Structure prediction request, 239 residues.
Amino acid sequence: MSPDTSSGARETGKPRILVVEDEDALAVAIGDELEAEGYEVTIVSDGVEAEKAGLARRHDLVLLDLMLPRKDGFAVCRSLRAAGVTTPIIALTARATEADKVLGLELGADDYVTKPYNPRELVARIRAALRRANQTPGAADVFDHGDLHVDFRRYEATRGGRPLSLTPTEFRLLASLVRHRGEVVPVDRLIEEAWGKDVFLTDRVVYTHINNLRGKVETDPAHPRLIAGVRGVGYRLDI
Prediction:
């Protein structure tokens, strides 16, 4: 495991994971587990250093504890997403309440793992997040609607020429809706196409990500006209 001091780590060809955890023993245990799985691991122990490392965009995934000294993980996640950082973030939390999980997802985390964690589950979620991040969403190459322009191959989105900082998960959700435009896409189908098969998520998690997406692509997010919800079924792209 290495300190976050060099961008040369990419030369190894190994996926690079930033582990943000202030409990030394747990950080080392996670690092050892991930290195044994073939990942290159960097560990930082507080939110300020996590934000600095995340903004440098030298990692393929961030494993982020939510309860950190100096700056908590919620604030770190918010700052990274506000800065346009789209690196996948998995929140690691001992706070297992649904409200805390939803808040982390609302702020831009792609997934979460609850402490005490199962090492196999953690590795599986990391693999799934990295796999999703490297997949082309699979809709038409380009989607245009009014002044909204989305290039799915380049993972770029603009409204009126201004960049929109969509996360990889939001790109995949939008791609699924574009692929089935005019149809109601059931929540289960959205989960499969945006997160993958054999992934268990609640409807609330999907709603949170859809709401975040609306906040970026709708002209008036409080009164969405592009992404319609059908209660008890799913969502529909109205174009």
